[in-house]
Amino acid sequence: MGSRAFLGVCGAAAAGIFSVALLIGNDYAFFAGYVVLQFIVLAQAWNILGGYTGYVNFGSAAFFALGAYAAVFLHKLYPLPLPVLIAIGGLVSGSAGLGMGYLTLRLRGAFFAIATLAFAVVLQTLVVNWNYVGGARGAYVIRPDSVWLVGSYVHYLFLLMLILAAVAVAIARAIERSRLGYGFATIRDDELAAEASGVPTLRLKLVATTLSGALMGMAGAPFPYYIGYLQPSSAFGLEYAVNSIAMPMIGGTTSWVGPLIGAVLLGSLQQIATVTISSAVNLLIVGLLLVGFVIIAPSGIVGLVQHGWPRRSAK
After folding, report:
1. Domain 3-307 carries which CATH code?
2. Tens digits of per-residue pLDDT, 71-118?
3. Could you tell me the pTM of the whole model?
4. Taking the CA atoms of the chain, what radius of gyration do you get in angstroms?
5. Is the terminal CB of the chain with fewer CB neighbours within 10 Å at N or C?
6. What span, in angstroms and rounded, lies between the C-alpha atoms of 43 and 138?
7. Measured in whole angstroms, how far is the alpha carbon of residue 250 from the centre of its chain?
8. Residue 49: CB atoms within 10 Å
């Protein structure tokens, strides 16, 4: 399937999902659906660097929060339409990804992962002490009740995140089938051999960190409007760092399909658990599933389907 045909399929799927949500007639379906779609974007963004390129990023929450706080900053400075804020959030977080990559990508393995975690801690400390965006006490964001042509603002947020999720999936698929994706794969498989073969590894890794950070920032920009109140503990929440890693690993990191499956599966389970049990069990669900898949299917659901169960392959 070509890129144009795939974009058409994504558009049709997005329209179908939005229509089904409208037919349900319950605003919670839009709230819960927004969260699942947000995780689809985060999972695809993390997988560009962590799955395609092989550099594990523990600082996902930092890029997400950077997009959210960029939106809060601009909202207080001069309110702009949300699509513009999403684009600016992507630009800010993408620039941060480029800068972080330039400083840390000469590190490898656990050292790079620790550096990304340190980046998140430093950024959170700066935000906590920045009074203009609320500091430690947080900041309120007053959103309108409705939007022209769309209606409820909740529906509007859901629609924007649905479009963003479709764009993220399309970007991940395009990368996987391109020369850029093949370059990422050579770095993941054997970076030293790739360098010896003339592959511009540093340049490709910088592209990966920039794209990954930009998508995470775009996912974070609407977040203050979704919850109406933003504070460091919510923007830099552990659930974003953990889910953005767990979802691609459970779904499968070598293809764009894996993060999509993992995000839909885990995101839906967490929303069901929130309604039926408690939101406190969300990370427990993620942890149990992650441990189970690491033991049973290290290649994720996609690898399990492609290669079959280990026992079956052993026969």
Report:
1. 1.10.3470
2. 999 988 888 899 999 999 999 999 999 999 888 888 887 888 899 999
3. 0.88
4. 19
5. C
6. 26
7. 15
8. 28
